[in-house]
Amino acid sequence: MEELSLEVNMPVAELNAIKFSLMTSSDMEKLSSASIIEMCDVTNAKLGLPNGAPQCATCGSQSVRDCDGHFGVIKLAATVHNPYFIEEVVQLLNQICPGCLTLKQNGDTKRVDGTTIQATCKYCSKDGAKLYPSIIFKMLTSPRVTLSRSKLHRNTSVMDKMSIIAEVASRVTHSSKNKAPHETLPQDFWDFIPDDNQPPQSNVTKKILSPYQVFHMLKKLDPELINQVTPRRELLFLSCLPVTPNCHRVAEMPYGHSDGPRLAFDDRTKAYKRMVDVSRRIDDYRQHPQFSVFASSVVTSRVMECLKSSKLYSKKSDGESSTSTDTYGTKWLKDIILSKRSDNAFRSIMVGDPKVNLNEIGIPVDFALNLVVSEQVSSYNFKNINLKCNLHLLTKEVLLVRRNGKLIFVRKANQLEIGDIAYRLLQDGDLVLVNRPPSVHQHSLIALSAKLLPIHSAVSINPLCCDPFKGDFDGDCLHGYVPQSLQSRVELEELVSLSHQLLNAQDGRSLVSLTHDSLAAAHQLTSADVFLQKTEFQQLQMLCSSVSSTPIPSMIRSTNSQGPLWTGKQLFGMLLPSGMNISFDQKLHIKDGEMLTCSAGSFWLQNNTSSLFSVMFKEHGCKALEFLSSTQDVLCEFLTMRGLSVSLSDLYLFSDHYSRRKLCEEVHLALDEAEEAFQIKQILINPVSIPNLKYYDGGDDLSNSDGQSDFTQVSLPIIKSSITTFKSVFNDLLKMVQQHVSKDNSMMAMINSGSKGSLLKFVQQTACVGLQLPGNKFPFKIPPELSCVSWNRYKYLTCDITDGTGVQNMYAVIRSSFLDGLNPLECLLHAISGRANFFSENADVPGTLTRKLMYHLRDTYVAYDGTVRSSYGQQIVQFSYDTADGMHRDHDLEGEPGTPVGSWAACSISEAAYGALDHPVNALEDSPLMNLQEVLKCHKGANSLDHTGLLFLSKHLRKYRYGFEYASLEVKDHLERVDFSDLVDTVMILYGGSDMQKTQGNPWITHFHLSQEIMKIKRLGLELIVRELIDQYNTLRKQLNNAMPAVCILNSKCSIGNDCVKNQTCCITMVVQVESNSKSQLDIIKERVIPSILATLLKGFLEFKNVKVQCQQDSELIVKVGMSEHCKSGKFWATLQNACIPIMELIDWERSRPERVYDIFCSYGIDSAWKFFVESLRSTTDAIGRNIRRQHLLVVADCLSVSGQFHGLSSQGLKQQRTWLSVSSPFSEACFSRPAHSFINAAKQDSVDNLSGTLDAIAWGKEPCTGTSGPFKILYSGKSHETKQNENIYVFLHNPEIQALEKNVMNTYRKRTEKNSKQRSALNSQGNATINGGSISVNQKFLDAKVGIWENIIDMRTFLQNMLREYTLNEVVTEQDKSCLIEALKFHPRGFDKIGAGIREIKIGVNPGHPNSRCFIVLRNDDTTADFSYNKCVLGAANSISPELGSYIEKILSNRAIRSHQL
């Protein structure tokens, strides 16, 4: 044995929290190991390795691994402002008076006795303000200053906030308005600025302050004022700059020269050298007239350069050419702090090998020679490990062993001792953690057992394991990690082994199932026409896992064979566990492991929640893996025996030319029908073309109808709806082609089994390519016939093929198939649309959603009490991790204590987002990925366009022909806003002659030419327009007290000729009645009258705009209404409902709703918004093709709404929620985005991060809250438990103290009941009340309506009134009464504000505004208080029942208040 001297005594400690703070200049000097004076000192050997010397001059270490580096310090040539506090200093200076250095006050102040104190400061007093105007302090944003040999240079491309400037406010005295500002300032105006050895200047309005001058002003301030900025005054200025260790800035190249190693320096080292150079050369400029200001500017510029060269910032400085994609240092933070290095890992291309077991991974032998496993030797495993180590010595001569804390070499067998830690090579059976980046879902991490194979350069896995890794065998790589501790191996075995994650937690389907070749073979084997001879059946039977006798053949004798025959279903039944019983929809029946019937499809074989193998895993657990493995072996052997080959004959559906031609004719007829449906849909939802529908009988060519020849009139929503209709008809074409395919078609066999391909791709190969949709628009217009001759003719006629504004460049229909060949134009169109539909444009969206979801949900887990909590502050997210509506739960997926349910939910949604990349992305189809992103944003909306409502049409319209189409146009016509300007084509002002002045008119006549076509579409008549113009203009004049001139509006024949007739317009004339002596008649008409007339609302509502008719994916028409700037966001839906009262019967109000979560929250509350969010998230993921379990959806919804309202999945939304929850996690925020900004803000506030999050704990060596390390506290009082003698329950109840307590409770309840009945009888008598001699009445049913937990409104008021009287002042109410008061607060108009951060307790107090009256006082969780009146709660509850009842209760309460005041 040989002992190695490789031991390093590493410090051992437990990290509990991180405190962020800023260093002062004195702190920098204390912590530094070297003072940097010369440029070469920046890489001084005292700063650690690497450097030019062979060892560190501070600690003497010779290896970078042993030396963490040491800090240095640069003493600045001039004291400068701390860049992190310069904004706060400016704000503080603006709050104080520069003369007396106290807080600014509004002139003179008053004493307590009412006498006035005259301000003595000339800057504060009213008299002095005339000569001494106020001063404003600002940050001076200047170009970066650099030094040269002769002068100062300013780099204008880089701007830094480096100086503070004092500027006189732009206000002069009344007596000096005509003088310049500097001429009005007194000589001693700038005396508050200390002398900087410069001649005094009083004739300036602004001055740049040096750091010395600012320091002189601040040192006289009250320390309490400075504490508002920072608790340490010395942090406001810098006189030193720390220098980071060499290991952070210097890299040693792998090769060097004879005089030493070759070193490479980063940008920070260069910035430090320039900083030292400035300090050395600054003395040459002391003769500058403003040396102090310029010196601080130069030094500040270099300081900012050093700070911004940090790796937490971008590679390029602000203002320079930012070509780097790393805008912030999150990547560096991830690589340096979050990443954990492991020497026992590998990365290799994966290949498929069906002979490898499902729970194994084949590793090449040359890989295993470099992978080490550590094992602790004990008496329990001594023989086993000793045998493994002996095998290791056969491969290598040396075995590394740690004994008594020291590393030794073992060269002989049987030298191990109990207590040793042996480092042996990887062998068969060792666990390996495998994943394929990116790990987008929970099951992308699987622990597999190693199996050493004599292969090279590639690892092998079973093809059935491809689905969990989301990979295939086209060059995908796998990453493997060998665990080194017993704890990690046990954790991998119990958590992520394949036998412990059989079911997918996303939707409950099986994690591994039949796929590719095995799935195609299973589909063929279970078909009705498959028969096996005895030799074939017995050959396949040998591969079955279960040992059983050969069953009785299905066919004893047949005409085509010499012996009995067995069906494929019999063989497949032998692969199933005995006693298995399944029955699916009368299509699949398995009884006692025997397959009786099965459907022709392969749905029950594919991987879904109700498939055969999903049920098998749920019933048989780990044993099902053995059945699946043997099934794969049998199916692969069956496929080898029967064969499955694909050739061109599979694409030629018919061998004869006649049948082929007939199929082509049917395909063209189907395409004609689809295009006709496309055009009909355009007419149905296009209001311009609706008259054509009345005369269409099905035989006319709609392309030649009026208004349809020019596609530019068709909007994008109309094209989207038409595309949906085209696809629905095109699906019939797919079914027709499928019917013509023969049963022995190999390609269709793979499609039907779900193994490979799709029916759409097959039809494109054999029949027609079909509809082509580009990403945005084609770069040229599409001719009616897709041929080169037609295209050339079209270019000759139009002479413009680059115009992309037409609608006809948004889609194309290719009638040819790939088998027939495409002409050049068709090939070009297909290439453009195929390339545009790739996901490259939105490839970063799933990754962004994954980061945000994990950041928001990863710290949510199931606590020991069964609740779902967040690790930050232990806030409750859910009271129990369960599904709603009695949904079935699987015990294996049930949340146990410590389960990371937040990470599970985030992974489920993230995997769906990555799956959405397979869907096409273009302008004419809704992208599921973009829809998912919009659902998760659930943002409030920055402008009015973000608020929309969806109106669904009533189902009763279905019985009418085109009922939905006409109803949607009716709703749109009713709501759409039509201004007079929408109808006007031309506005002209003509001179009418001098005769007009005799009639008190105006010689200027205004002509409004209106479009008759638009008037027809908007259903407006000329008389109605004139009447509305006159009425609304007169109303406007009354509102402005006749400030607008009177007008005369007429509907008369236009006096300018036949232009109106030629242009199909009509004319409205207007004469403005202005005084004849007015000199600006024409200006009044143009600037005041005409804009008011054009803004006149003729029809619809001002609160709405962009009213559109849209078609859903299920071809249902809806009306989408947008909010205008004239409507408040919180009142949008209520305004829309009131506007739709005249057309109420056309709308289905059960389904109509606002489109966004925020609008639903404002209209119906958080409960409705929560339900809508869950349903929207479910429907969006279903559209992607992922059936996500409801538990995950509920966790996402509850986490986003835990604060009482929805916060979107964005950086702003996450910040708002964490602020509301009082969560401080600087490290976690820095790992998410902008690490420099997060760390600086945390240091300025002296924040403490307790590392409560999962990522924080793992990064710094703490145990995370998830798993078995969650918080579990036992409270012990310190007193021993004393046993008491058993007591009879009846004796206890007869105790006098107990009986007295119960009697008091019953008496209190009886008194309340009697008071309730008396007051109810007084107020309920015939529903009438007398107030001041008058009588008011209310409907009796309103008085009897139930209110919350009370029977009626009278009971509620009586209960609260009695409670207020029974308690004494400052007495805290009981928990039962507290819950009743919280229920009453729900009806308070400001109940949400009263509750605030949560109610801790409620007591009886005195109303601050009325000292003689009582009220309830709420004590919140944040130690704040609020008072509330129970009368407002009662009034709010009455208004919730009926406005009539609300006014009734309000009059009663006001009458009683008047009488009590009179008394």
Write the layout of secondary structure elements.
Layout: E1 2-3, E2 18-19, H1 25-31, E3 34-35, E4 72-81, H2 86-95, E5 109-110, E6 116-117, E7 135-147, E8 152-168, H3 181-184, E9 206-209, H4 211-218, H5 223-227, E10 237-243, H6 246-249, E11 250-257, E12 260-265, H7 267-281, H8 291-308, H9 330-338, E13 345-352, E14 360-364, H10 365-368, E15 372-376, H11 382-395, E16 399-403, E17 406-410, E18 421-425, E19 431-435, E20 445-453, E21 458-461, H12 466-469, E22 477-481, H13 486-495, H14 516-525, E23 531-532, H15 534-541, E24 566-567, H16 568-574, E25 582-584, E26 588-591, E27 594-597, H17 612-620, H18 623-642, H19 657-685, H20 690-694, H21 716-740, H22 746-753, H23 759-766, E28 770-772, H24 788-798, E29 812-814, H25 824-836, H26 844-857, E30 860-862, E31 868-870, E32 876-878, H27 901-915, H28 928-937, E33 948-952, H29 963-975, E34 978-979, H30 980-983, E35 984-991, E36 1004-1011, H31 1012-1018, H32 1022-1039, E37 1046-1050, H33 1059-1062, E38 1065-1073, H34 1081-1094, E39 1097-1099, E40 1104-1111, E41 1117-1123, H35 1132-1139, E42 1153-1154, H36 1157-1164, H37 1166-1184, H38 1190-1200, ...
Parallel strand pairs: 3-4, 13-21, 14-20
Antiparallel strand pairs: 1-17, 2-43, 4-10, 5-6, 7-8, 8-9, 11-12, 13-22, 15-18, 16-17, 16-18, 19-20, 19-22, 23-24, 25-26, 26-27, 28-29, 30-31, 31-32, 33-41, 33-42, 34-39, 35-36, 36-38, 37-38, 40-41, 44-45, 46-47, 47-48
Domain RNA polymerase N-terminal: 234-526
Family: Belongs to the RNA polymerase beta' chain family.
GO cellular component, one term: plastid
